[in-house]
Amino acid sequence: MGKIMDNYCFYLNRKKIEKQTKYNKTSHLSKEKKEKLYDYYRCDYCGAEIQIKKKKNEMTGGLVEIPYSLTGKSPLQLMLCNKCLNPLIKELETMRNGENHIPHVD
C-alpha cells in the first residue's frame, strides 16, 4: 500500500485541511513581533509546502477530490502539489488490482 491509503481513515475523518503560516525567524526571548511571511498548505503525499496565492493558477498545487472509482472506498479530499498527482493516481490504480476507471481502447 502507499502513503495515502495507509492513513486512509485519517484523511477521511478530518474536517478540513489546515492552513499553516510561515513567520520570519525571531528569537522567542525577544519582544519583537512575529512578521508573517506567507500562508501555506502541506502536500498530503510528499509534505512539500504549497503557498497560498491570490491567483489560484499561480499556486503549485491545490485541493483534489479523489473519487470512489479510484479509492474503492468513499471519496477523499487531499491537498496535493502538481508533481504528486500522477504518482498518486498510478498508486491508486495499481492498488485496485487492474480495475481501471478509464476504459482502454486497443
Q: Which strand order do you get reading across the main beta sheet?
A: 1-2-3
Reading the helices and strands in chain order gives HHEEEEHEH
Q: Report the biggest beta sheet as strand number plus sense, adding barrel if it closes.
A: 3 strands, antiparallel
What's the β-strand tally? 5
Q: Please give the radius of gyration in angstroms.
A: 18 Å
Oligomer: single chain
Mean pLDDT: 85
Alpha plus pi helix count: 4
Classification by helices and strands: alpha+beta
Shape: elongated
Helix proportion range: 10-25%
Strand content: 15-25%
**Unreliable stretches:** none
- From the N-terminal CA to the C-terminal CA, the straight-line distance is 29 Å
What key attributes describe this structure?
4 helices, alpha+beta, 24% helix, two-stranded antiparallel sheet
SSE map:
Elements: H1 3-6, H2 8-13, E1 20-23, E2 36-42, E3 49-51, E4 61-66, H3 68-71, E5 76-81, H4 85-95
Describe what is shown at a glance.
This protein has helices spanning 3-6, 8-13, 68-71, 85-95, and strands at residues 20-23, 36-42, 49-51, 61-66, 76-81. The chain is α+β, with helices and mostly antiparallel strands and 106 residues long. Strand 2 and strand 3 form a beta hairpin.
